[in-house]
Give the backbone structure.
Amino acid sequence: MNPDDKGRRRLLKGALGSGVLAAGAASVPSWIIPALAQGETLVPFTDVPETFAPRKKRVGSNYYQDTREITSFFSSYEQFYVVQHYGQPELDIDSYSLKVSGMVDNPIQLSIGDIMNRDSIGLDAGWECGGNRETIFNGLIGNARWQGISLRTLLEQAGIQEGAKEIVFFGGDIGSEEIRGREVDKAFARSLSIEDAMRPENMLAFEMNGEPLPLVHGRPLRLIVPGWYGVANVKWLTQIHVQDTRYMGRFMGRDYVTLKRDVVGGVERWVENSVTTINLKSAIVRVTRLGNQYHIQGFVLNDGTPIQSVEVKIDNGPWQKAEINPRSSQYSWKLFNFNWNNAVPGEHTIVSRVTDIEGNVQPTSDQVPEKVSYWENFSQFPRTVRI
Ligand SMILES: Nc1nc2c(c(=O)[nH]1)N[C@H]1C(S)=C(S)[C@@H](COP(=O)(O)O)O[C@H]1N2
Ligand SMILES: [Mo]
């Protein structure tokens, strides 16, 4: 069989499939936070307005999930959030190609069949949008099994030339930007330093949860930079360009830029930084009850540094250790469960915090630097429930 056919057939087969997970993903038990057991009920949060109801996922629009409904280690297609800044291009699979250009010894051009016929790697990775926030109860989040090719292997084949500084990843989606009174057409793009791009875990993914990448998540190919905020994971990837200057496009230099008050070498200043690696974060997403037993459940995300502990505090009580789902891996989200024993009826404030093995502790909102931008919300998130 022509190697091109194998890849195409794989793509077509999946495209026609129902939304069922492939065997590899489905056979993995999703320990902790299972769907509600018989007789088990969700305890309503008193901080969620009754009118709060995320919309159904629709092709063509952004979507955040209802985190009270996180019930499995892998987010289904219906749950995984969507953010797209320039709408959603439907790239023609037959004429699609990925181009590697710029300061390389061997420029490369690959069809999707060529890509699918290369050795592939798989990885569980979860992330959130850099704009995820408490007002939507952290719904811009998801965790999935990804399959794709190694970015590093591709770049080694291309041969990065001496003097190169950055690698720019262009999406096939184009938006009109007004810059100094002039409308220009710009592709969504992000860049990485050579060092960040060469991390062995970076991949160009063509499958999500054992299915071809869904259109909203970047069909046919997307970049995945494990441990980074969602914005790094360029969807509908069409070009990888190596250059000796810094890429300053909107999503690197203007948007997804955090502005915060911080200390720079002893001097207090307003500091701007491009959104990159995920800050150490945990949050409670649901409380359940079965008989007299209550459970508090939530997630942890970070840059991949191993986690030391996740703890839960009830009202003014002590921090108590929660259990982390053993299915977790370095770049997946980590779901946790805390058995809330002897819960007393009434209104309670509950909060979680995570600590990594380097001793970094998730801060309270009072401990993070003053911030005027929308990005990187990672402080402890107290919730209220009535039981
Ligand atoms: N080409 C392209 N890639 C993109 C975006 C986009 O608008 N265009 N949005 C980014 C942002 S801001 C986020 S948070 C993630 C969202 O990925 P998802 O929609 O698969 O959840 O994709 C990133 N990759
Ligand atoms: Mo985002």
In short: The two ends are 62 Å apart (CA to CA). Residues 83, 129-131, 230-231 surround molybdenum atom (ligand 2) (CB under 6 Å).
